[in-house]
Amino acid sequence: MPDGTSAVAAPVLVRQDRDAVATLTLNRPAARNGLSLALLDALTAALREIAADPAIRCVVIAAEGPVFCAGHDLKEITARFADPDGGQAFFADSMARCAAVMQAIPALPQPVVAAVQGMATAAGCQLAAACDLVVAAEAARFCTPGVDIGLFCSTPAVALSRAVPRKAAMEMLLTAEPIDAGEARRIGLVNRVVPAGALRDEAQALAARIAARSALAVQLGKRTFHRQSGLPLAEAYEVAAAAMVENLLAEDAAEGIGAFLARRSPEWRHR
Questions:
Q1: Which GO terms describe its molecular function (predicted)?
Q2: CATH number of 13-211
Q3: Sheet harboring 141-143: ordered strands across?
Q4: Of 32, 60, 106, 180, which is most buried by a Cβ count within 10 Å?
Q5: Residue 2 above 50 pLDDT?
């Protein structure tokens, strides 16, 4: 018999902070962690909070269940075909919200590590590719299967083509064939491949190692890396040289150089 209480829906995204690392866990395992509007909005809000949190120096994006992320929620999309405009307004809004998340990750001051188990397909592959580093379980698979359903993975192609060589990206996009973790590592989509049981620990350890460095140096470095990567060579060196000067004038650079010369561990002030 009903007891008068109502079940509370599980959050679509769970944040856990450990030391200086924030872990964001996609929490829609029954829906293969599909990127519903609710999940996209939760990611946007969490990334905004983390960007303003000086206590967090690295981020891990993980997922519950056997699938990392199956991309956009196709059931949510299909339901809007019946809209008076055929779903156009909803689709435009959905793609804009997804693009905002994928741009927020490289724009985030803190580095982001993806911990991928199982399949990462379509926008799920895009999510992994948008992260700064990827740790994958041996059973992980990456795929952009849009052409199989008449929907080319154009937005996933943006992040994918910036993470791997152009022809490798085009082969994934045109054939829809999944690649395993080993091949993903070979083409540069994945940094490390580990046994399934070690995935979270490896991602956490990698994030903790990054978080142990000077936050000022790491964040300046990430920002400069993304800024210079799309520039012509001479402009890229101008941007990088200016960043080096800014970094050299920081307290942590003086501390780090002094500690190296004195053969002691540095004491970062993160400024």
A1: enoyl-CoA hydratase activity
A2: 3.90.226.10
A3: 119-121, 141-143, 179-180
A4: 60
A5: no
